[in-house]
Design a protein that fits this description.
Layout lengths: L1 E11 L5 H11 L3 E7 L2 E9 H13 L6 E10 L7 E3 L20 H7 L43 H8 L20 E5 L9 H10 L4 E4 L4 E6 L3 H11 L8 E3 L2 H7 E2 L2 H7 L6 E6 L15 E5 L4 H6 L7 E6 L11 H7 L6 E5 L11 E5 L2 E6 L9 E2 L7 E3 L9 E4 L2 E4 L9 H18 L5 E5 L5 H6 L5 E5 L1 H12 L6 E11 L5 E9 L4 E7 L2 E2 L5 H4 L1 H13 L1 H10 L4 H13 L5 E4 H11 L11 H7 L14 E4 L3 E4 L1 H12 L4 H26 L6 E5 L6 H13 L3 E3 L11 H24 L1
């Protein structure tokens, strides 16, 4: 007996070959009906025998395409309509969107095989793709995802591509970016004067890279600057021209075997390197491979990715160009470059040549960056390959937005039970970045089909997000920075009940007006209690201390050790005698010397005192270089410290500074001092927690670890070990960064909780 059902499917089901997959299943099980994309996902009308329909539904969930993800599948029995065949029908563009936007993914093995086959008509074609790979988010102008609403609309399909596109049994059926050498985008090599070079653009670019040139390459989500990663002169030239003296440069290796020659690679690192998302993975370098010494000065690690576009694969080869520097082409402090005219203008003093193509990038996106920590993926930057994939929540987040922080900015939206984090925006310190924020926010808001009524912002009064939100007609909810970090990690792990949060961070505005960043909190998304922190010390000259960590060291030494501290500072920084006297007066008169108790500034101060890094040229340099000196497999003896119990527990590091100064005077091994300092941070945090649970034995022994300093592998590994000894279940971040790139997730959940409480209070008052 014939039955008819309507199947509605939500999730990542557009742009991933889902409709042809449904079509093929329908043929297998003798089903008649239709499949259609709409603003909600995919709708299927299926008619057939009951046993065939059951098999069809089972296969729908167990055999779905590798890039798809089914979040909801609803089945409704309907009247039989008498379909004569099964067909894919035109997309429905009406209604509010609840779509999951498809993500950009690395070129698949099937496409690579065709690209390398001299008999295939797409042989060596740099834009080969199918339903299982290629550009998605970066080319979409409107939803639903159909070719006329992408930047491929200006490339009419040739007869051959059209035939593949329309064939439901073909791998490229409804692959919106489908193209070939006859009808698709093309690559051109031009010089810095705008002159097009004759010949094969990719081969010409390879020859110039081999000869030491710097080439700007238009990729999937923006421009990269590339040069031979084994050519020290080329790398130094790139650093000089880009005015980036020390920031580590990411590299792209021709293959996994090249990566394994360069770096130590474990099983999980290999899995994430070769995944469809293809992020940059931070790996430990081998000293035997001839990478340019200035690639990552002072570091034992390097950020490595594999080629993720066909163009990258054609540029690199194991024999001639095994590894290229592949770094974002933006100037420091401005968004990633993605428009051709702007790139040619901005980079003409940096790049010798430009390898460009004529497929417009609609949405720029940076490369994602991860490291593996304790066997888990630790996001340093969540971007290409992951954005804008949603998270699911049990909180009511609908029509709430969160604007993130000032640094490493990422915003977030709530829609029904979904949370969407936007792309990595960067530091909101100049007009270009703020405009980039506003542009991407508006795009994603429109795509999501939401009109936020409540917006969460960091409570810091001078953050740019306050200037952005004041133009909007919304309710604004200020959120304390470290509470947002804590709740971000809670949401990342599905924790709704009260728990502890240890937040080790660089900067965050505290409720007492001081700068927090070494915090022990207890609570949930609705409230928190501050149980302990690092003693406040002055930052003489304020934010300047971030770029000049020696100033932070002077502040801590002067505060903890008085005149002896200033003497020590003068000995360690002999060229700063005059400035030290000025800083001393600033601290004594409390002029432009805000009080701070942060893990990030503590790392900076020790790094500067040890002469590891007295001036930071990129975010976190002093702390990163100090961490690189530590052997993660070794347990060091901590320096002495003291806990003071006032209203809340305070960590006093006077004894530690005296001991470090003594070790430096004795010319003790700098790696040992760095290791002992790391263990002191661990031990002080654990003792603070031990005291807190003595005072509050009824509190749940669940602990979330968050804040930018939790990227430090030694700290996390040893904190987890010691916390487990105290009976804690310990949680770290899973899907968002522990640093400010994950802040918006916590802000959103806190805002949702406050809105819910407010509505409950109103309801109670009305009763």
């Amino acid at each position: 007996m014939q039955k008819s059902i309507k199947v509605t499917i939500k999730g990542r089901v557009q742009g991933v070959g889902f409709r042809p997959f449904v079509f093929q299943l329908a043929h297998r099980y003798h089903i008649k009906g239709t499949v259609q994309n709409n603003m909600d996902g995919v709708t299927v009308f299926a008619e057939g025998e009951e046993k065939d329909l059951q098999s069809f539904l089972l296969s729908l969930q167990t055999e779905a395409p590798r890039l798809s993800r089914i979040d909801q599948l609803n089945v409704l029995e309907v009247d039989v309509q008498g379909f004569e065949q099964f067909s894919i029908i035109e997309s429905e563009r009406k209604g509010a969107s609840s779509l999951v936007i498809p993500i950009d993914t690395a070129v698949c093995d099937d496409c690579l095989q065709e690209m390398n086959d001299p008999n295939d008509h797409r042989y060596r074609y740099p834009f080969i793709n199918c339903t299982q790979c290629g550009p998605r988010y970066t080319i979409i102008e409107q939803l639903p995802y159909d070719r006329p609403y992408t930047s491929m609309k200006s490339f009419p399909m040739c007869e051959r591509c059209q035939k593949e596109y329309e064939d439901p049994l073909n791998r490229r059926h409804h692959a919106q970016p489908i193209a070939c050498p006859v009808c698709g985008p093309r690559v051109t090599l031009i010089d810095r004067h705008g002159q097009t070079l004759d010949g094969d653009a990719i081969e010409n670019a390879k020859q110039r890279l081999l000869s030491g040139a710097i080439v700007a390459i238009k990729g999937l989500g923006g421009y990269h600057l590339a040069c031979d990663a084994t050519n020290e002169q080329a790398v130094q030239q790139l650093r000089t021209r880009k005015q980036r003296p020390a920031r580590p440069l990411a590299v792209m290796a021709a293959s996994l075997s090249v990566v394994k020659q360069m770096c130590e690679v474990d099983e999980e690192e290999e899995r994430i390197l070769t995944s469809p998302e293809a992020p940059i993975v931070v790996l430990k370098r081998r000293t035997t491979y001839p990478l340019a010494p200035s690639l990552a000065p002072g570091l034992k690690t390097v950020g490595v990715m594999l080629p993720y576009t066909p163009l990258h694969h054609l540029l690199l080869d194991e024999e001639h160009i095994p590894v290229l520097v592949m770094t974002s082409a933006n100037r420091s402090g401005v968004p990633i470059l993605y428009k051709d005219e702007q790139a040619l203008q901005d980079l003409k003093s940096i790049a010798d040549y430009f390898l460009v193509h004529n497929r417009p990038i609609v949405h720029p996106i940076d490369d994602s960056v991860v490291q593996i920590q304790n066997g888990n993926v630790d996001f340093l930057r969540r971007a290409r390959g992951f954005v804008p994939d949603p998270f699911f929540t049990t909180s009511d987040v609908h029509e709430i937005a969160a604007l993130g922080g000032q640094q490493k900015n990422v915003f977030a939206f709530g829609r029904n039970e979904q949370i969407f984090l936007g792309p990595h925006i960067g530091d909101l310190q100049n007009i270009e970045v703020v405009e980039h924020f506003q542009r991407e926010y508006e795009h994603l808001r429109t795509w999501m089909g939401v009109e936020p009524k409540v917006v969460a912002v960091d409570m810091h009064p001078n953050y740019e997000t306050w200037n952005i939100v004041k133009e909007w007609d919304v309710s604004v909810i200020p959120v304390q920075h470290h509470h947002a970090h804590m709740v971000s990690c809670m949401e990342d792990n599905g924790i709704n009940s009260n728990c502890f949060g240890l937040i080790l961070d660089g900067t965050g505005y505290g409720e007492d007006g001081h700068i927090w960043g070494f915090e022990l909190l207890y609570g949930d998304a609705s409230h928190y209690q501050r149980l302990g922190h690092l003693t406040y010390t002055p930052l003489p000259s304020g934010e300047r201390c971030i770029k000049e960590p020696w100033r932070t060291a002077v502040g801590m030494l002067g505060y903890y050790l008085g005149d002896k501290g200033y003497e020590l500072a003068a000995q360690r920084f002999p060229d700063k005698q005059y400035e030290i006297q000025i800083l001393k007066q600033m601290m004594e008169k409390d002029i432009h010397a805000p009080k701070a108790g942060t893990c990030g500034r503590l790392f900076d101060a020790v790094s500067a005192f040890l002469h590891v890094c007295t001036h930071s040229t990129y975010d976190g340099e002093a702390a990163i270089r100090l961490a690189e000196l530590v052997n993660e497999e070794y347990i060091y003896e901590p320096y002495p410290f003291e806990l003071k119990e006032k209203n809340i527990i305070e960590i006093d590091l006077t004894a530690m500074w005296l001991a470090i100064a003594e070790d430096v005077k004795r010319n003790e091994n700098i790696e040992l001092i760095a290791g002992r300092f790391h263990q002191t941070v661990v031990s002080a945090a654990i003792e603070m927690i031990r005291k807190a649970i003595e005072k509050h034995p009824q509190y749940h022994r669940q602990m979330v670890l968050s804040g930018g300093s939790m990227h430090n592998r030694y700290l996390v590994k040893n904190l987890i070990k010691e916390l487990q000894k105290l009976g804690f279940i310990v949680y770290t971040h899973q899907k968002v960064p522990c640093s400010d790139g994950g802040l918006a997730l916590g802000q959103l959940i806190i805002a949702a909780n406050r809105r819910e409480r407010k509505s409950c209070v109103l309801e109670f008052q009305q009763k």
